[in-house]
Design a protein that fits this description.
This is Peptidase M11 gametolysin domain-containing protein. With 708 residues, this protein is an alpha+beta fold. Helices cover 17% and strands 26% of the residues. The termini are far apart.
Length: 708
């Protein structure tokens, strides 16, 4: 046996003997004790490399095109007791888009689909108007985080996946990834941007049943103002008559419950004048309120088609890509309806389709989805862009009674280039704001006729002036060119097309550059008008009794420049005036929503010049009849008549504009008013002449006693 084996056996024998020995003391043999085993130190497990959460990825590109601005018409706001004076109904939705023909060189380009991209200005209303041409507009195209992750793109467009492997991309994903890598910081056509927006939507919704995403381009500015394409002959200029032409399409989608109850002939009977019915019509609205300057002739130059079944409620169209009319009501849906109308007309009336550009407006009637977002009554371009289709849409509910001429007229007037009609409201603390819909006397505000199917409410004075439908009886400088007071016989707007006073607050008009040598002219002014219904006349015959036979003071800085209005700057109703009755102010309260009551109506409106706090322009209603009101306009820098010196009390003028002149004004010390007001002096005391009293008798002589 080898020596190593002997040693091992010996060691084992020794251990066994020790274990069996009963007198072994382990405590005395420390070399036999062992501590607890040491913890084994192992290296920490390797963490699996998980990628950071995906983040949205965006690129910035520069685009050019023609502006189209649309604004929706909101339903009436519920009247609530105890409302805040400045808690207005929600502002209408405003949509912005850039558009260009797909084939600008084609003579029929307007009859084919024009590519458009929606722009999101983050809730702001930029200083642009419909028809304006913009170049190098910086827009941001954002990939949602989940799409960026699918495309393996991180911030800065770097690859988010660092493992060196690439997931397999679909054709759409591959095209979108390449575009995002190539687009940043470059100029791109609207068609290229439109394609990217469609790809983002397609990739985002892939595999999600029923999902739909509204992808917009976020505008980071308005770029360069390159010119003005102009609006389509919709303003009346110099009194020259304008004849509107349009194609009206009744459209519906029965496959998803969006169905119209009206036929084309029923709609046409309410849309165009039919004296036998006595109903109000869109045609008569144009003729009556414009004094025959702006006409809407039926049948030939304005045609009605439908109802047209659009087929599937979801799909994709050429202009703006994917749409879903069953649940959405955005630019994509409106453009899809326009594309479908063109396709239908090209099949059924190819000759009319070839004349598409001859028809200035495309008016669509469609029952939008029953969702809160689609609760508006209609939407329209504010002004008709010169190089694109002029669009308006009325949301005609399946249960809606008849044609609704007021709603149709409201949207078609937007196409002229007119904004909403607002009202300036101030609370008890002096804070003021503008309610964009707040004018209850104008169809572009809350002007609803008393009988919506048989009567009319027309435009207020500034809107009628802007559209060229009415003109001033006189335009005056607010300082009256050195005069103190002027008095006017102001006719009712229902009696003549020269029917308001325009008081300009700036000596000259200012220019707003639209680019390309085109300017927009502005001049701040007050418009003073008298609204009174006239027997046997349709103009304003639907005016509510609270608004009848009263003087209105509006403010606006738009002029008759044939350029669309700025949406963020509507005309504002500042004051309603009336003649006192038995020394008391009339109260506007009966039959109107409390939000649109004006309370006790004064007979005076006062404007203080911010450049000179002493300077005041005062409008006063002195009297009124059925067809006119006597109104004075007065300018002063005096607080009291006597502040003008002795001459101010003897010159026959009302120098402090309080309605009293010279000796009628108590400010003058020798005025008749002061004399009438002072008590008579006491009568002089009477003096009686009497003879002097007799002299008293001399005192008696005193006797002396000598014995003393």
């Amino acid at each position: 046996m080898p020596a190593r084996g002997v040693l091992v056996l010996g060691a084992l024998a020794l251990l066994c003997s020790l274990a069996l020995s009963s007198d072994v003391d382990f405590k005395e043999r420390p070399w036999l004790r062992r501590g607890p085993p040491r913890a084994i130190r192992r290296p920490p497990p390797k963490r699996s490399s998980t990628p950071a959460p995906a983040e949205p990825v965006s690129v910035t590109v520069l685009v050019s095109g023609e502006v189209a601005i649309g604004v929706s018409h909101q339903e009436n706001h519920d009247d609530e007791a105890g409302f805040d004076a400045l808690d207005f109904p929600p502002a209408p939705d405003v949509s912005y888009s850039l558009g260009a023909p797909l084939n600008a060189s084609s003579q029929d380009s307007q009859a084919t689909a024009a590519v458009k991209i929606p722009l999101d200005f983050g809730g702001e209303r930029p200083d642009i108007v419909t028809g304006q041409l913009l170049s190098d507009v910086p827009i941001s195209l954002e990939l949602p985080a989940e799409v960026a992750e699918q495309l393996d793109l991180g911030s800065g467009l770097a690859a988010a996946n660092t493992t060196g492997t690439r997931r397999r991309l679909s054709e759409d994903q591959h095209e979108l990834r390449r575009a995002m890598l190539e687009f940043h910081g470059t100029r791109r056509s609207l068609g290229e941007v439109r394609r990217v927006l469609d790809l983002i939507n397609a990739v985002q919704s892939k595999g999600l049943q029923g999902a739909f995403f509204e992808t917009k381009a976020t505008a980071q500015g308005t770029g360069n103002k390159a010119g003005y394409g102009g609006v389509k002959d919709l303003f009346v200029v110099g009194g020259q008559k304008v004849q509107v032409s349009s194609l009206v399409f009744l459209m519906h989608a029965p496959s998803c419950g969006r169905q119209l109850a009206l036929s084309a002939s029923q709609f046409a009977d309410g849309f165009f004048a039919n004296p036998s019915t006595g109903f109000a019509s869109v045609e008569r609205y144009h003729t009556v309120c414009s004094w025959g300057k702006f006409t809407y002739p039926p049948r030939v130059t304005n045609r009605v088609y439908g109802p047209i079944d659009i087929g599937a409620c979801r799909g994709s169209e050429r202009s703006m890509g994917s749409f879903d009319v069953s649940s959405q009501c955005g630019d994509r849906e409106f453009s899809a309806l326009m594309d479908k109308a063109k396709a239908w007309l090209s099949r059924t009336e190819p000759d009319t389709f070839r004349r598409w550009k001859e028809f200035r407006r495309i008016h669509i009637v469609f029952p939008l989805a029953d969702t809160p977002e689609c609760g508006f009554g209609g939407i329209a371009d504010v002004g008709c862009p010169g190089g694109q289709d002029c669009f308006s849409l009325v949301n005609l509910r399946p249960t809606a009674p008849g044609v609704q001429p007021v709603l149709n007229m409201h949207e078609l007037v937007h196409n002229i280039g007119l904004a909403h009609s607002g009202r300036r409201v101030c609370d008890s603390s002096g804070r003021c704001a503008v309610d964009e819909y707040g004018d209850p006397t104008c169809i572009m505000g809350r002007g609803i006729p008393t009988r919506t199917t048989a009567s009319y409410v027309c435009l207020n004075a500034p809107q009628a002036y802007k559209g060229g439908w009415a003109n001033a009886i006189e335009e005056i400088d607010y300082r009256l060119s050195g005069q103190t007071e002027k008095t006017y016989q102001l006719p009712s707007m229902a009696t003549t097309d020269r029917n308001f006073i325009r008081i300009v607050l700036a000596p000259t008009r200012t220019q707003v550059n639209l680019g390309g040598g085109t300017v927009k002219w502005k001049q701040a002014a007050f418009f003073v008008s008298y609204r009174a219904k006239q027997p046997g006349k349709e103009y304003d015959n639907g005016l509510n009794a609270d608004y009848d036979q009263r003087v209105y003071v509006h403010f606006w800085d738009e002029t008759q420049d044939a350029v669309s209005s700025e949406l963020g700057n509507p005309p504002q109703l500042w004051q309603v005036l009336d003649v006192p009755v038995n020394g008391r102010a009339p109260v506007m309260s009966a039959g109107t929503e409390s939000r649109y009551r004006f309370g006790a109506l004064p007979n005076v409106f006062e404007y203080r010049d911010p450049r000179d706090p002493r300077a005041r322009t005062i409008v006063r209603i002195k009297s009124k009849t059925l067809d006119k009101a006597e109104v004075s306009v007065c300018y002063t820098a005096l607080t009291r008549e006597s502040d003008g010196g002795d001459e101010a009390c003897t010159d026959g003028k009302d120098n402090d504009c309080d309605g009293l002149a010279d000796d009628e004004d108590p400010d003058c010390p020798d005025s008749a008013a002061v004399q009438r007001r002072s008590p008579p002096p006491p009568p002089p005391s009477r003096t009686f002449k009497r003879p002097p009293p007799p002299s008293p008798p001399p005192p008696p002589k005193k006797k002396w006693n000598r014995g003393h």
